[in-house]
């Protein structure tokens, strides 16, 4: 059994984070304060912390690395899901983000580690990846 992770990220506006993660993405809100909010990210604890230095239009800095003919943003975070959970979630995300960094698609098709994946950003510029495998246990760390 995997244990839940805890991840704290910076955001430019707490109310904007509440709208994006809570309302639009449908994540349940846990404890909160004027400077942070806990969200239930598929059983994991995601905490959005206000960073006033970002300003109202600020964005978290990142760079990109090439993976499977795509420019993958670094840093990024997300969750590995079952395919039957990923597909409706991808449809929901398509209705709430203005633009994908990497559109939902199948990466490494026919190879070890074949996966459904998509990348997008929250309003503060935090890059998120959600992926799914047909068999998480055998494919998540597959090398051959």
TrEMBL record:
CDD domains: VOC_like. Pfam families: Glyoxalase. Residues 3-133 form the VOC domain. Gene3D superfamilies: 2,3-Dihydroxybiphenyl 1,2-Dioxygenase, domain 1. InterPro entries: Glyas_Bleomycin-R_OHBP_Dase (IPR029068), Glyas_Fos-R_dOase_dom (IPR004360), VOC_core (IPR037523). PANTHER family: PTHR39434, VOC DOMAIN-CONTAINING PROTEIN (PTHR39434:SF1). This is Glyoxalase-like domain protein. It comes from Stieleria magnilauensis.
